[in-house]
Amino acid sequence: MTTPLRLGIAGLGTVGVGVVKIVRQKADLLAARTGRPVEITAVSARSRNKDRGVNLSTYAWEDDPVALAKRDDVDVYVELMGGENGPAKASIEAALATGKHVVTANKALLAHHGQALAQTAEAAGRVIRFEAAVAGGIPVIKALSEGLAGNEITRVMGVMNGTCNYILTRMQDAGLPYEEVFEEANKLGYLEADPNLDVGGIDAGHKLSLLSSIAFGTQVNFAGVELEGIQRISTEDIRQAEDLGYKIKLLGVAQLTGRGLEQRMSPCLVPADSPLGQLKGGTNMVVIEGDAVEQIVLRGPGAGEGPTASAVIGDVCDIARGFRLPTFGIPASDLVEAKTAQSNSPAPFYLHLTLVDRPGALAKIAAALGEHGISIDRMRQTRHDDTAAPVLIVTHKTQRSDLDAAINAMQASGVMAADPVALRIETV
Amino acid sequence: MTTPLRLGIAGLGTVGVGVVKIVRQKADLLAARTGRPVEITAVSARSRNKDRGVNLSTYAWEDDPVALAKRDDVDVYVELMGGENGPAKASIEAALATGKHVVTANKALLAHHGQALAQTAEAAGRVIRFEAAVAGGIPVIKALSEGLAGNEITRVMGVMNGTCNYILTRMQDAGLPYEEVFEEANKLGYLEADPNLDVGGIDAGHKLSLLSSIAFGTQVNFAGVELEGIQRISTEDIRQAEDLGYKIKLLGVAQLTGRGLEQRMSPCLVPADSPLGQLKGGTNMVVIEGDAVEQIVLRGPGAGEGPTASAVIGDVCDIARGFRLPTFGIPASDLVEAKTAQSNSPAPFYLHLTLVDRPGALAKIAAALGEHGISIDRMRQTRHDDTAAPVLIVTHKTQRSDLDAAINAMQASGVMAADPVALRIETV
């Protein structure tokens, strides 16, 4: 046995406590697997006296995570506080400045400051690992940056926000409206303090931007992710999609095209019998496509004490084993700035239009589509009241820019009684 | 850039050629990802003059893989010939003896000699990597030994022989009998030279034994894998299983119980709407369950030039990056000898019995089950001819040992007109 690897853990919420438990309960296993003891020397959290159901008395306590990060008896600084700035950023910078490796679950921080932090880490000869930041317990960062290193990655897709998938699945299964399920999820503690991080697609967008960087060798470009939340999805859309053989998922897609890097996180229709279509509740799924490997699908729990701690400990074990890898797979200085491309690769779209109930309204819609070169695969008019006529259209493959132009023309024509819903149909 | 990593490749079949192509075509990508150039210096195969569609003229040629393995200008010996003994074994031993790392896709070799080879490698301070040996392009060895290193693994399951899954899927979809689909698969070149390696479950059993070793820290124990092939599966069984809401898959299951290590590779019924149930054709799937991560499901192509070469190159990149890991995750000397346990954890079973057509036959069957404490969940008698009555039974959970005893009693009672089919129902 060589010298122990000493961890300092900042943040003792669900995940932090999970990490402490594994280190305490599996000391022998971790030592056998990594060739050296893995120990905790110091911890930090907001409240010292809270009962967390785990014995912390053998560890030094720091009120200030920056002080923890700087301690001489810490080799790896484990940041589990979260937050895109503030103490998380300051403490990680302090850790790197004083020669520590960093393990974090903080996607927001890396989505905004990943490039700068990667440069700092590599200049200091230290690593930043963040398996727990993306798709919970699924070892997707490892698969992408190591297992599939022989591939030109062509596309990465994923359902990576368990809360949104819970809401959409529950709306589907129970036939409950969005607002009601949202409240339910809130009561269950599934939502972030700012729920828009979840339902607005921001959290999942952070994750996608990190995967993109590794997949395509580009600098993290969260600003380039087209974000659309699930707030406008209705039970009617879910029902109609199901009737057409699809499910609605908050799906992230990233691909490098001749025009630049396309990244979008938006509600999409996926075939009901596809792996993505069958995903239920808080489970996450990531699909990776590479020129050699074709397609790999990874599925697992996207959150929770055990799964997220599992990912953190995986990173810790890699460090204990001496594995050293640049933050995003290649040196930060080699990551190229990605030109943001509007997501415009052709796809069929689902349109849910609400028309004023008067003669010729449908003709104007059809004309607007036709004038923009969009042909109709299927159309149906659903239940109908005195003032408005809901019309559902599935288009043939078209570009989003053409569709947007057609929608503008529809709206200008005065026959639309409500804003349209337009969802991409993604075949996997 | 540091010094190049130099590969010697033995075996230039589909996979070998795929590896050569990636190294030639992606030199920049591999160098960026690993921090050093990855090159091929020498190759070996049976026939030098065969046109393989790739330029080999810049590499030294060796007729003898052992000579290749010993070359001074080789850092990593890549063994892609296959075979559980013979040149594969001799050359890997030669490579380790002369200080090379080894990358191989050879599951048969490792299933039989993994422990000895791991000891040799570790004594020499070299690694043996074998991602390509299990589940083709899926980075499952990496997920299990690295990403999930913080878990006590509780169970590993998988569909890991694409040929068997192709045969079963095709029988299901086309309603064709086993013999016909077997011939079809043979003509398509899907079968090993000795087809029993595939349809007898041996190849998949090799793979399961390797995963077991990593999962449970035990010495590879292929002899302890209970093997049952797919040769006796009929279209009638497939149809009946479907009717009951199941699909038949050649499924491997390994778990460490209080009684020892259970490993079985056998046709099972799995729920039709489960990830395993939906697997079609040559695709593989591995399910890993750990105490922290709960359940991870990995899906991808189980064979083929690109996917298998992707796995080989992943291993090569890890070596180029300086990652060093014992062959089975922990040092070979720490792997414990696994006591083989009869696979006896309770499960429901599907029974397809053929009874002689005479009064009281069914009563004897029911009595045999009852006397062994086995209760019946569902029973039906299907189409019926003059001489024999097929009876289908789904039992409640029972142990295989009790079921075997009941089947012995049925056979002794003289009412069975044919050997029974008994398939475990595995809920995932």
Automatic annotation (TrEMBL), chains A, B:
Q: Which Gene3D superfamilies match?
A: 3.30.70.260, Dihydrodipicolinate Reductase, domain 2, NAD(P)-binding Rossmann-like Domain
Which SUPFAM superfamilies does the entry link to? ACT-like, Glyceraldehyde-3-phosphate dehydrogenase-like, C-terminal domain, NAD(P)-binding Rossmann-fold domains
Q: What is its EC number?
A: 1.1.1.3
Tell me the leader sequence span: none
Pathway noted in the entry: Amino-acid biosynthesis; L-methionine biosynthesis via de novo pathway; L-homoserine from L-aspartate: step 3/3; Amino-acid biosynthesis; L-threonine biosynthesis; L-threonine from L-aspartate: step 3/5
Annotated catalytic residues: 207 (proton donor)
Using the UniProt record, name the top-level EC class of this enzyme in a single word.
oxidoreductase
A Gene Ontology molecular function term for this protein is:
NADP binding
Q: What keywords are annotated for this sequence in UniProt?
A: Amino-acid biosynthesis, Methionine biosynthesis, NADP, Oxidoreductase, Threonine biosynthesis
By its UniProt entry, which PROSITE patterns does this protein fall under? ACT (PS51671)
One GO term of the biological process aspect: methionine biosynthetic process
The lineage's top-level taxon is Bacteria
Where along the chain is L-homoserine bound?
Answer: 192
| Residue stretches making up the ACT domain | 350-428
Residues binding NADPH, per UniProt:
107
What the record says about family reads:
Belongs to the homoserine dehydrogenase family.
Please name the NCBIfam families in this protein's record: PRK06349.1 (NF004976)
**Protein name from the UniProt record:** Homoserine dehydrogenase
Per the UniProt record, the source organism is Shimia abyssi
